[in-house]
């Protein structure tokens, strides 16, 4: 009778830790907590036999790169290092009219911070591209401008990820499916639905799984 609690403790000790850094897309604005993509990813990894603790999410709707950095620095509950760290940031820099030139050094600094919290292991970090909200009802009026600007932002983040040898997952093409498939948009007519987040996770789940099994 005493073996079950002991086994549970062992599993908890062995469970992988995951830090997800971002903005509204990472916190899952307008979807249930279980539908957030970091939560979906963790659940799939558990299903594949990788014990996972609940993701530690530092993300809030409206955050720019500088907001995220300030929040990380102010968080007193962060572990010294995590087995997995993800970074998705930049849409609010673009939305608020910040230049892509100003975004570049701030994103690079955040990626350095992400690597630090992965215990210095760049192979345990991944970047997710910024989705294209111009394909939503909210952004439709400026669809072409949004596409052009976000393509520039994503080019910068991809190049910086490559510079540091960090995996980069391009979910932007999936986000653009929302124009034809309304079910991929949340009820707020702006953010992804749980179904879209599932498609994101399906894109990189196996690669993240391999990452954690190395």
TrEMBL record:
<dbReference type="InterPro" id="IPR036514">
    <property type="entry name" value="SGNH_hydro_sf"/>
</dbReference>
<dbReference type="Pfam" id="PF13472">
    <property type="entry name" value="Lipase_GDSL_2"/>
</dbReference>
<dbReference type="GO" id="GO:0016788">
    <property type="term" value="F:hydrolase activity, acting on ester bonds"/>
</dbReference>
<dbReference type="InterPro" id="IPR013830">
    <property type="entry name" value="SGNH_hydro"/>
</dbReference>
<protein>
    <submittedName>
        <fullName>Lysophospholipase</fullName>
    </submittedName>
</protein>
<feature type="domain" description="SGNH hydrolase-type esterase">
    <location>
        <begin position="20"/>
        <end position="197"/>
    </location>
</feature>
């Amino acid at each position: 009778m005493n073996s079950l609690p002991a086994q549970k403790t062992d599993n908890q000790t062995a469970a992988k830790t995951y830090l997800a850094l971002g903005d509204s897309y990472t916190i899952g604005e307008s979807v249930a907590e279980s539908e957030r993509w970091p939560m979906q990813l963790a659940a799939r990894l558990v299903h594949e036999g990788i014990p996972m603790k609940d993701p530690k999410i530092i993300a809030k709707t409206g955050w720019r790169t500088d907001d995220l950095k300030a929040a990380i620095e102010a968080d007193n509950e962060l572990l010294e290092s995590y087995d997995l760290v993800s970074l998705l940031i930049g849409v609010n820099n673009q939305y608020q009219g910040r230049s892509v030139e100003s975004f570049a050094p701030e994103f690079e600094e955040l990626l350095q911070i992400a690597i630090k919290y992965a215990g210095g292991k760049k192979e345990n970090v991944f970047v997710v591209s910024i989705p294209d909200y111009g394909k939503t009802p909210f952004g439709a009026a400026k669809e072409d401008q949004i596409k052009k600007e976000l393509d520039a932002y994503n080019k910068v983040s991809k190049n910086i990820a490559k510079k540091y040898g960090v995996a980069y997952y391009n979910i932007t093409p999936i986000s653009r499916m929302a124009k034809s498939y309304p079910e991929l948009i949340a009820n707020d007519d702006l953010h992804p639905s749980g179904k879209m987040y599932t498609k994101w996770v399906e894109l990189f789940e196996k690669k993240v799984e391999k990452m954690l099994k190395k």
